[in-house]
Each structure stands twice: as C-alpha cells, then as structure tokens.
C-alpha cells in the first residue's frame, strides 16, 4: 500500500481518492444487495463517478439502515476470515461485520499507519489495555497494527488493574494504548498502593474511546488529568469507528486526527446532508476504501466534529478531523434546556474527589427526560454530591439528581447494557 500518499499535495490526494471512489461503487454495485438496489434506485452509475464531488448524490447510510438491513450489506458471506460485531444497544440486535482476508490486512495496515503517525517504533514496548475477546474489532486492529510495526506488545486487557500495575512495575513500558478514564483509574490504583514506579517511563499515550481535547485542541478536563498523571508522556488522541473499521490518529502536533487517504474518505455535513464550511461543526460521514466484507458508502457515524484541510506541520496533507465534540445520541433536552454528555462530563471530571461516574438519562411520556448522576468516591460524600449538583446547575442549567454508590455497584451499572467496555452515559425509556 502507498503510505507516501499522506504527504502528497491536496490535488494528488483528491485524484487518488476519486479512483478509489469509482472502484468502491463498482464493487458494491456487483456484490452488495443493499447498495446495488440503492444505486439503481438513485440512477447512479460507477462510470459517471469522476470526482469526490459526485459522491454528494449518494444518499447517506445511517446506523438505522445497518440495523434494519444488516445482512444486505454483506459482500462476501462465503469468504469470511473473521466476523466482528458491535455490542448492540438496549432493545436492538448487534451489527454483524464480516471480514475477508484482505480486510484483516487492511485493519493491520490502517493501525500501523496510525501508530506510526503517533511516533510508535519497532523499539517500543507497548502495553495494550484493550480487549481482544468478545468479537471486539478495535482490540484486534491495535494488536495487528503493532505486530506489523514489530513493537514488543504486552496484552494486559482493559479491566485487570493488578496485571497492568505489575507490567508497568516490572517492564520498561514506554507506550500505553487505552481508554483515558481507565488510565486515570490505573493511576489512582498506583497512587493508593504507594507505588508510582514505572509511570515515569511512559512517553506516549495512544488514547481511544473518549475525547481529551476541546474544540480549540486544548486539553479538556480528562486530558488535563491524564497529563498530570503521566507528566512525561505525549498524548495522542485517536478516533475510531467500528462500523467502517477506520481510525484517525494525532501526530506529535496534536491538531487533529489524520486519515490515511487509501483507507477512507471523510466528509462533514449538516442535518440535510450538505457539506459544511471548513471548520464548521457537522456529522462525520465516512466512506470505506479497500473493504471487501462490508464496505460502507457515506456512512453517518453519529459523531459531531469538523474537518481540517490545510497541511499539518508534520508534512501530511491528508484530511484531519477535529475532536469529537458530541455524539448525536448524547444530546439531552430537559425542560427546554439543551445540553450534552460532554458538558456534564467537564463538570464531573473537574472534581478530584470523584473516582468514577455514570450519567443516566430517563425518558417518560409525562415528565420527559430527567438526569441522574451516579458517582463513586471515598471522602466528603454529601459535600461532593451537593457541590456537583450546584456546579451542573451553574454551568449547564440542568437540575440533576446526584447519587453516591460503591465502586462495585457503579461497575455493575456501567456494564448493565452488555457492553464490552464501561458505559458512562446511558438513556432509558420508562412507562409512567
């Protein structure tokens, strides 16, 4: 694969991706029952795709489409090398994603490029704090990418704090791949044990699953906390999307996640599906290139961000995306006041006395949405509850219920949906 395309000029990248766009239309017209029917209905011919601009005529694919017509997206049901699936949300089935042999190589290459963008080298020792079981595509992708680089890998998983601490204490680990909130929990575990040995050796954090930056690329509360916990480490924010098997990783400049042009095409659109101006917030839309098992065309990830086209100081001219500002399903409207998960988390993460949290949104017919925030902590609980409630009102104008529970009970709540990773924001529908 052509890794140098990242450093070509914008015109060369556009021409390169236009060819890939035509190719994916040709492929799906033959092999994907869903896209074959869609493109015929819209009278879109692959031969008429001459530029990325022509993609605008193709209707957006939503997660609802994937849930409803999942098997109709399959292109190689008889040639699977692996199968991954989402964990599914309450009341819905998971999304099945078949992978061909070439898709596994694509996964490995995609993450290899991402890790190289973050400065990971063959000489590095990397602690991989992600799951490799449970049909989890991200953990598999990270492992394959690191193997491609040739780095030394310690697979300690996401939940075993004792194993993570032992690995850091006994081995010269300089890079960690993990979820920001989990790594903060790991630091707290170290601190309470009276052992900080090993943390100073960490020079790179590859952060997945949660945003660490504000819209202006400065660190948010979660990022600031991590920078304090790992003072010698450069923080690299990474965005990944399970359905498209695509990822964006920051370079050392920390000003947006780089997308490799050979893997995917990214656009940012408004509610009507029209492109928004450079730097304006909108829905992140991804088209996969090179995927054979289940390619997706103009897929709405449900994530809100912005696009950056100007070349990066690192020399790459490929598209970058900004921090994920919000997700469509994390918007809350309480008695006429609209806020989001990220706004609530900024308040919670600013309180050092909170060990962990979960935001539970309940929607009833008569009363609409209400907010209950569960927190765990060990000191000054009543004071902390009242302080959190007051600060949420002051900053967001939401009257939230704040409750304390044990760490064990909070973990049960976070994993109650059957998710492979802790869910810190959940919505439920209840009868009056």
Question: Overview of this structure, please?
Answer:
- It is a single chain.
- The protein is an alpha/beta fold.
- It folds into 2 domains: 7-324, Rossmann fold (3-Layer(aba) Sandwich); 327-429, 2-Layer Sandwich (GMP Synthetase, Chain A, domain 3), CATH 3.30.300.30.
- Helix content is 31%, strand content 23%.
- It has 11 helices and 21 strands.
- It has helices spanning 10-31, 33-41, 63-68, 101-117, 137-149, 161-170, 180-193, 221-229, 341-349, 381-396, 407-414; strands at 82-85, 96-99, 125-128, 152-155, 175-178, 204-207, 234-241, 246-250, 257-258, 264-269, 282-288, 299-305, 307-308, 320-321, 326-327, 331-334, 337-340, 356-364, 368-376, 401-404, 425-429.
- A 9-stranded mixed β-sheet has the order 4-3-5-6-7-8-9-14-13, sandwiched between helices.
- Helix 7 (180-193) links the parallel strand 5 and strand 6.
- Helix 4 (101-117) packs across helix 5.
- It is globular.
- The model has no long low-confidence stretch (mean pLDDT 87).
Concise synopsis of the structure shown:
The chain has 432 residues and is α/β, with parallel strands linked by helices. It has helices spanning 10-31, 33-41, 63-68, 101-117, 137-149, 161-170, 180-193, 221-229, 341-349, 381-396, 407-414, and strands spanning 82-85, 96-99, 125-128, 152-155, 175-178, 204-207, 234-241, 246-250, 257-258, 264-269, 282-288, 299-305, 307-308, 320-321, 326-327, 331-334, 337-340, 356-364, 368-376, 401-404, 425-429.
């Amino acid at each position: 694969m052509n890794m140098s395309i990242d450093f070509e000029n914008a015109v060369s990248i556009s021409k390169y991706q236009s060819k890939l766009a035509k190719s994916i239309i040709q492929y799906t017209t033959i092999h994907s029952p869903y896209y074959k029917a869609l493109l015929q209905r819209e009278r879109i011919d692959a031969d008429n795709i001459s530029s990325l601009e022509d993609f605008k005529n193709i209707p957006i694919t939503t997660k609802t489409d994937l849930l409803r017509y999942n098997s109709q997206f399959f292109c190689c049901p008889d040639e699977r090398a692996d199968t991954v699936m989402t964990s599914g949300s309450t009341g819905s089935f998971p999304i099945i994603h078949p992978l061909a042999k070439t898709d596994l190589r694509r996964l490995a290459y995609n993450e290899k490029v991402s890790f190289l963008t973050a400065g990971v080298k063959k000489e590095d020792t990397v602690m991989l704090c992600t799951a490799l079981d449970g049909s989890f595509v991200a953990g598999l992708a990270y492992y394959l990418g690191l193997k491609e680089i040739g780095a030394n890998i310690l697979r300690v998983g996401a939940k075993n704090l004792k194993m993570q601490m032992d690995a850091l204490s006994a081995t010269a680990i300089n890079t960690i791949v993990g979820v920001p909130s989990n790594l903060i929990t790991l630091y707290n575990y170290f601190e309470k044990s009276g052992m900080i040995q090993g943390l100073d050796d960490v020079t790179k954090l590859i952060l997945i699953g949660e945003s660490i930056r504000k819209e202006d690329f400065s660190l948010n509360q979660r990022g600031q906390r991590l920078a304090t916990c790992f003072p010698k480490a450069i923080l690299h924010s990474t965005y990944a999307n399970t359905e498209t098997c695509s990822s964006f990783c920051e370079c050392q400049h920390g000003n947006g996640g780089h997308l490799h042009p050979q893997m995917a095409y990214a656009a940012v659109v408004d509610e009507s599906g029209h492109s928004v101006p450079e730097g304006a917030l909108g829905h992140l839309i991804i088209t996969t290139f090179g995927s054979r098992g289940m390619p997706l065309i103009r897929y709405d990830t449900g994530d809100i961000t912005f696009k950056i086209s100007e070349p990066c100081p690192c020399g790459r001219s490929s598209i970058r995306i900004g921090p994920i500002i919000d997700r469509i399903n994390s918007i809350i409207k309480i008695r006429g006041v609209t806020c989001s998960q990220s706004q609530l988390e900024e308040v919670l993460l600013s309180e050092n006395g909170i060990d962990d949290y979960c935001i539970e949104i309940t929607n009833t017919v008569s009363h609409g949405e209400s907010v209950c925030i569960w927190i765990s902590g060990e000191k000054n609980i009543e004071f902390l509850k009242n302080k959190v409630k007051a600060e949420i009102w002051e900053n967001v104008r939401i009257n939230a219920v704040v409750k304390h529970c044990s760490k064990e009970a909070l973990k049960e709540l976070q994993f109650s949906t059957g998710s492979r990773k802790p869910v810190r924001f959940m919505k439920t529908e209840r009868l009056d």
